[in-house]
Please model this.
Amino acid sequence: MLRTIYEHQRYLALCIAAILTVIAWLCWIIDDWPFTLVLITGGLTALGIYDMLQTKHAITKNYPLIGHMRFLFEKIRPEIQQYLIEGDLEEVPFSREQRALVYQRAKGAEDKRPFGTMRGVYDAGYGWLTHSIVPTHFENTDFRVDIGGKDCKQPYAASLFNISAMSFGSLSANAISALNKGAKMGGFAHDTGEGGISRYHKEGGGDLIYEIGSGYFGCRDDDGNFNPEKFKERAGQDQVKMIEIKLSQGAKPGHGGMLPAAKITPEIAEARDIPMGQDCVSPASHSSFSTPMELVQFIKQLRDLSDGKPVGFKLCIGHRREFMCIVKAMLETGITPDFIVVDGTEGGTGAAPIEFTNHVGMPMVEGLTFVHNTLRGAGLRNEIKIGVAGKITSAFHIAKALALGADWCNSARGYMFAIGCIQAQACHTNHCPVGVTTQDPIRQKALDVENKSQRVARYHRETLKALGEMAGAAGLEEPRAFLPYHFMQREADSKMKEGSDAFPYLPRKFLLEEGEDHIEYRQRWRRADAHSFAPPEKPAN
Model:
């Protein structure tokens, strides 16, 4: 009973307005009170009912009447809004400026800003793009990259900006539907997350990147081990364009997970191929491989089972030597993934200890630089495409990632903003106020799929348009031509630092040749073993 009252307290304001309307009406009939009171309370009641029926704003649909307070605060001057709603910008999970940019593009609103930058150009860490006196212009900003190596039979022409991994179960059915339908409209890819391919992914019809995690959801046997036949069936669907093995996740690398039985719905059980009434465990590591050589053989197995679709893996860089172990296994076997996705520790999730979220794993920029240069040093960079994820929401973020070695970018946070996320930080409570991260059937109905899917497609289109404008300003023929020297950054001592000094491209095949340069790479390369992730034994004292 108490829980029911708590769940529906968001309708309290509407109920009070309705009760006051009845009281005012009775008083007007009996005692000839001013009819103005009836008009006021009746108007509020009518507004609340309209809020519940409309499909444009999830916040007012779930919180009739009181939801308008948020929009009222949005009208207040930015410096007042900062303290009334968000507090110190250092305390909120993401920059208000970046979130506002996503909202504007998703809604098709004007994203120009008068009176200059919102940041101090003399602050340490401020970065900027260098531009050309002879800019170029792009008529077509549907930028794409072909993903597929020498053993791939079905290469995929991917957009430079796709939806990063978010599972059904973590997100609501309506959220998954809106994202996937938006991906279909815009012609870009939607990563399923490790929760499997749900009916809502299929209904949307958008291109899918099928992520295979340690739980092998959707392709597992009764004991939770990998099932080749089930995988072949799902990977063979036309909608599935690529397969991604999740080695680790940026927000909680090296950490497993568990979905309690109480939270498992029939739809989640269907997508994950798990029984009802039992806790669903995602182990911290895979059972199909435990060595670098076994990993590359697993890549080959998945490519064969999927009839040559692009297969790769995603990881957040931890022990750098371990990634070099995988690269050495590639060289020894000749088996290479078609792509590698570098996930930064900046990633967010509602299912990780705060210590993991804040302090475990390498940030995206440093991880990307390391992976890019290791593949260059091993002579494999041209065979393997690199994707990245980690708080990427704007064209500037994409341009910088491309400059540092990425071939394309994925975003989870940006697309969540596009479907209405307001960072209420209630993802783990099942009480998401806008229906994005909840399995509550009433709350998620507030997220109108048709409206939000159009915002997803619009956000993608406008961000790539902005990327084209930035590439044009730099005088480039395409965005993937960005290089580190196109970017500058202000240091703490007020000096400028060029991107090529901070994140240089190292020589091709330098790890395969003798030398004393780049010793931090060479030392780890010497200790890396293609047959084991275990560290070399320490020398005796």
Notes: Confidence is low (pLDDT under 50) at residues 1-6, 76-93.
